[in-house]
Amino acid sequence: MNEQVVMMLLEGIRDTLYMTIGSVLIGYAVGLPFGIGLYVTGKTGLHPQPLFYRAGDFICNIIRSIPFLILLILLIPLTRLIVGKSYGSTATIVPLVICAAPYIARVVEAALQEVDTGVIEAARAMGASTVQIIFKVLLVEARTSLITGFTITTGILLGYSAMSGTVGGGGLGDIAVRYGYYRWQSDIMIITVILLIVIFQIIQMVGMRIATGLDHRKRGGD
Amino acid sequence: MSVIEIKNLTKRYEIEGNSVVALQDINLSIEAGEIYGIIGMSGAGKSTLVRSINYLEKPTEGSVLIDGVNLTGLKERELRRMRSRIGMIFQSFHLLEQRSVLGNVCFPLELAGVKKKEARERARELLSMVRLQDKETAYPAQLSGGQKQRVAIARALATNPRILLCDEATSALDPQTTTAILNLLKEIHEALGITIVIITHQMSVVTSICDKVAIIDGGKLAESGRVKEIFAKPRSDAAKELISGEISSYLSANGFRHTEEQT
Ligand SMILES: Nc1ncnc2c1ncn2[C@@H]1O[C@H](COP(=O)(O)OP(=O)(O)O)[C@@H](O)[C@H]1O
Ligand SMILES: [Mg+2]
User: Fold this and answer.
1) Arch. (CATH architecture) of B2-85+162-262
2) Mutation test of the interface with chain B: which of A115, A129, A216, A217, choosing the one with the most B Cβ atoms within 10 A?
3) Secondary structure (DSSP) of B26-54
4) Per-residue pLDDT tens for B24-52?
5) Which of B56, B97, B137 sits opposite A125 (nearest CB)?
6) What is the ipTM of this complex?
7) What CA–CA distance (Å, rounded) separates A57 from A62?
8) Which domains does chain A have, with CATH numbers?
């Protein structure tokens, strides 16, 4: 394998990580507050607001029901508006974030719903405000589920970023499509697939380790 | 002036167009330093009543006064401050699973803005009071039910409340542990002079620790007064039923049998 190919693969890894991490972080910046909002305003939440909840719920479901590839194409005008162009790694982050944010919101909402309502009641009885309950009770008690959700989301975004390669998104997916599909150089395609698998495994392993490491339920002391 | 005064309290829940009356026209006064029992069958409205005392549940009608202050008139912020001065413990403990024992006891202090170091010192004092000083780094999942309730008691007392509310605090515990927790509550009562409200469905809890008792039946106050007097001369059917149930369970626990079972 020549140096040029190695360089290309390294750049591919860099672009893939850039897209994945970028979209996860921005996705969480939007999705986490959105998910907390859904939880708080939901039927069993701290401040039920049926109208607000239904609006959020609706937006969430609409975006989640559009297949990612179609979203990628639909969002080209928006991507151009934000990034200035519709191809390349940075541009791909736009549809990735829009695809991920509602999904993240759902994952966060579900994680918070797992927190025992009795614990929330106890906090209220101690005089906790809603903000204190969110930051000191909900997000802390749900952290294992939140980190597991974060790990799964990152894995999904890694896959989607590769998928965006088919429309010029850059990264390992792009390389796989260009060499494997257009040029029939299956050796390079196989290497990119292996790289994707390895990255995915590392994300899973690290994420799950952190999640269980931070979990104090049903475990020996430390 | 009573520490807790409940006046004409009615609570209705509206669920899908149906109205459930959980409490109806309850009047109750609890004096400073009393251990007051509230007893009734499951579904009688006991939890609703005790949750009205710290306004976790707002009454549909009537009012609750703490130290003469009507909670109805309080703003949310004032209400939260009032709640921080009323301790509460529960049947299933409700500890923060991701916090250590020490972290749990520090929690209400943290909410109140107490400095970390100060909070820890206070928490350690309380843990030694409930005799769990050697468990401060443990997590709730590693404790027995009785130990969890001790942590919950320490946590409830952290902010130095004048009132402690106990909602079925011993119902999830075995008889020995129940006795131990009740003894601890008695000890705390003697040491701190705190007013304790004990919700239970077990008459034995009332007879072993309470000065006075209120009997709740179907959302209504059936009878209230000194435990000895009510035990000696129950007037309401609800009281008679609870007491006879207590006597028969006492008898069967001690090897006696019901007369009708012998035939
Ligand atoms: N949040 C609620 N919504 C609707 N009904 C409720 C609610 N809480 C309690 N109830 C009803 O009020 C009645 C009294 O309940 P509760 O106070 O929990 O009784 P207890 O603690 O004596 O077992 C029950 O019929 C119960 O179904
Ligand atoms: Mg109850």
Assistant:
1) 3-Layer(aba) Sandwich (3.40)
2) A216
3) EEEEE-TT-EEEEE--TTSSHHHHHHHHT
4) 999 999 999 999 999 999 999 999 999 99
5) B56
6) 0.91
7) 9
8) 3-216 (1.10.3720.10)
